User: Which sequence fits this backbone?
């Protein structure tokens, strides 16, 4: 019986980790999109390097299909 409980506990931990990773990824993508909007509206105080990092990250996410193309661009 101990083996079954151990197995179920590991499965539950893996599921929880997967949910945490998915939540972090969603939060990260939302953050990048918000920063990109600030940069494009010229209301940001990012350094040139930070601006380029955000824009490059957005482009990589778009290539992977994680970000949908916004209307009006």
Assistant:
């Amino acid at each position: 019986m101990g083996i079954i409980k151990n197995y179920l506990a590991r499965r539950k931990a893996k599921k929880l980790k997967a949910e945490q990773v998915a939540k972090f990824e969603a939060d990260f993508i939302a953050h990048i999109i918000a920063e990109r909007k600030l940069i494009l509206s010229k209301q940001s105080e990012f350094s040139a390097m930070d601006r380029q990092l955000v824009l490059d990250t957005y482009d990589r996410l778009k290539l992977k299909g994680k970000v949908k193309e916004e209307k009006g661009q």
Notes: The chain has a mean pLDDT of 83.
